[in-house]
Every structure is written in structure tokens, then in C-alpha cells.
Amino acid sequence: MAAPMLEVKDLHAWYGESHVLHGVTFDVREGEVVTLLGRNGAGRTSTLRAILGLTGSRKGSIRVKGTEVIGLPTHRIAQLGIGYCPEERAIFSSLSAEENLMLPPTLAEGGMSVEQIYTMFPNLRERANSQGTRLSGGEQQMLAVARILRTGARLLLLDEISEGLAPVIVAKLAEMVRTLRMQGYTVVMVEQNFRFAAPLADRFYVMEHGRVLQEFTQAQLPANLERLHEYLGV
To answer: Which of 12, 130, 182, 210 is the most buried (most CB within 10 A)?
Structure first.
């Protein structure tokens, strides 16, 4: 069994005085794709942000490759090889697609080259000189993911990467996740789109009210569909 890449235990987090995570516990093994499922407000995005120290105060334990990071600042946590793709994408509108791609720092050796990125996302090669504001939503999403692949990060936190995109783009992103898994990346996805996430993940954690309610594997998915529909309202 692969060693844990990420271990979260009894994680509590706050935004100011608002207590948003209430003892979240889960783990992700190296090379796994894990999806956090739940309705809006369940605490999934806050979990990703808390892992990186982007919430307010937090307590509990977060280990990345065995290193406790609960007391570390965000930049130190990222330097352990974590890439975060936020829901808002954060593309620099005044820079070209390729300039956006070249912007992030190197966290570790082994980051994808620009040519590898363009092979994975041919649309970005075609739009390399286009300003960020002129990219479609799907192209911006591809660029947001591509940026973190340049850094050498091996643990990827992906927040709602399929949201609001055309089916052809969603299919391309699914292909990307499969490719990354084959290449040994570890991926934690927050997804509202269950149809997108269902065939991709090795394991699923269902969240509600800032807690993990249930864990199940890909093999256990068919037996849990009815309960999932209740949790997710799908």
C-alpha cells in the first residue's frame, strides 16, 4: 500500500470567528486521486484552503509526506510540493497565456516543460500569445491547472475545475486527471459535478457541515449511489 502523501486529522478551521471545519479527518496515499464530495457550504473548499494555511486560525494535524505543517506559513507548505488550483482560477489578465504559464516559481525538479504542457493542452499552444482576458473559460481553466504542473508539485489540490465548462472541455480535463494519475501525481479534487468525479477517483469522502460523514472506494460506489444522491441532492 502506497505511503500517505497527505494526512489530515481532527482539523478545525475558522474564518474570523466563524468555525467552518469541525474535526475533518482523511488521508490521501501517494498516486491516488481522491474527491471531496458535498453540497455547497459543506466545507470542501475550506479544507483545501486550510491545508495550505489560507483560512484564519486552524488546529489539528496536517502532514505532508510525513512533515507536520499545521504551524507553517503558506509559502513553506507550498514548497513541500503542493500545487493549488483555486476555483477563481486567478489568471493575470494583462499577461499572455504563455507569460501566465512561465510565472510560477519552481518548487521541485520534474515540473512539466512548456512543450509537455502544450502537448497536453493544444488549445494553449494556439492561444499562447493571447491575453488572459481573451481566453475562454475553458482555456483559463486549462491554464490555471497547467501553471501548477510547471512548478514540480506532485500533490495537486483542484477546486471545482469542471464548473461551468462545456462538455468537450470537461472531457479534456478528465483525460488530464487520468494522465496525471498514470504519471504518479497525487490529486485531491473538490467537485460538485459528480458525473465528472465519479469515474476518476480512487476514493471519495462525503462532507457536510464541516465534517467528513463517509468514505468509500471506487469499487464501493455502486452500492452507495442512493445514499450519495441523498447527501448531494443529485
So the answer is: 210
Could you tell me which residues are beta bridge partners of residue 141? none
Please state whether the predicted TM-score (pTM) of the whole model is above 0.85.
yes
Check residue 124 and report its DSSP letter.
Answer: H
CATH superfamily of 4-81+154-232: P-loop containing nucleotide triphosphate hydrolases (3.40.50.300)
